Amino acid sequence: MLSQKTIVITGLTGQVGKPVAEALATDNEVIGLARFSNSELREELEAAGVNCVVGDLGGGEFADVPSDPDYVLHFAVAKTMSFEDDLRANSEGTGLLMDHCKQAKAFLHCSSTAVYQPNGRHEFAESDPLGDNHRVPVMEAFMPTYSICKIASESTARLMARTLNLPTVIARLNVPYGHSGGWPLMHLEMILADQPVYVHSDGPCVYNPIHDDDILRQIPTLLSIADVPAVTLNWAGKDPASIEEWSEYLGELVGKEVKFERSPDLLESVTTNNDLMHSLIGETQIHWKDGMRQMVEHYHPELGS
């Protein structure tokens, strides 16, 4: 783990950024940049030792953020449903943040495997075609800008890495989950409520879920491979699993029958080729079954093991 470093973290009010910030604050000076509209969440972070700084990515408001941290972990993502606002916050905001922190030793830009053009159960490698993965009715209803903004932000990060000579790594995260929640937790709650789990008509819908403990463990290695030009790699669990498979497993753990409802209007599979990731930062360690069992025990201890 990192220690005695100054680390700027964005998006630390989100599922991935928050546990990372709290864990790193134990042995480092962590500056958490966000709008902090949720005062209770800010209090939790400050209690964990995070120095919470109010700022705005799209507005370039970083007055209280050091320009020379050791590292920057950029997890923030704006999802207002406005392309103008979200491109400003996500893409332009990435560039403004990198410019402000250009003296950092390394910059980690967290992207998503949602940048890939849907292609059935093809295992996506970093060189595969990009596309609007979220251009489906269910995603257009509440996250229409996500894929486009992730693609645009990656391009900005690559440009700024070259312009500023700032070592950068772009990690395309698959399905994060664990004690911090995630998509599998949503499925668990649906199962417990006797609601159907929604999946694409062309099943099984395969992903590579990655546990938050593996995410935290691999951050130092990701930072160590940051370079100019920026390094881009998938960031995903080594063991693929379909929504159907992990939902059935969660059902077994809680003693519930799982019902599925299929539709062509949902997200398709996004499973990854992890050869580059494994060669650069190694494999993940937590099998999805172990991680999801821990997730059930964490969120529903009343159900027993």
Tell me what the structure shows.
- The chain is of the alpha/beta class and 305 residues long.
- It has one domain (6-180, 209-238, 270-285): NAD(P)-binding Rossmann-like Domain (Rossmann fold), CATH 3.40.50.
- It is built from 10 helices and 16 strands.
- The protein has helices at residues 17-24, 39-47, 83-100, 137-140, 146-164, 183-192, 212-224, 243-254, 275-281, 288-299; strands spanning 6-10, 29-34, 51-54, 71-74, 106-112, 123-124, 168-173, 175-178, 181-182, 197-200, 206-207, 209-211, 231-235, 241-242, 260-263, 271-272.
- The strands form 5 sheets. Strands 3-2-1-4-5-7-13 form a 7-stranded parallel sheet, sandwiched between helices. It has a 3-stranded mixed sheet with strand order 9-8-12.
- Helix 3 runs parallel beside helix 5.
- The longest helix has 19 residues, at 146-164.
- The chain is globular and about 55 Å long.
- The protein starts with 5 loop residues before the first strand and ends in a 6-residue tail after the last helix.
Tally of distinct domains: 1
Question: What is the architecture at the second tier of CATH?
Answer: 3-Layer(aba) Sandwich
Strand count, sense and barrel status of the largest sheet are: 7 strands, parallel
What are the low-pLDDT stretches, counting only 5+ consecutive residues below 50?
Answer: none
Radius of gyration, whole Å: 19 Å
- Sequence of strands across the biggest β-sheet: 3-2-1-4-5-7-13
Total DSSP helices: 10
Order of helices and strands: EHEHEEHEEHHEEEHEEEHEEHEEHH
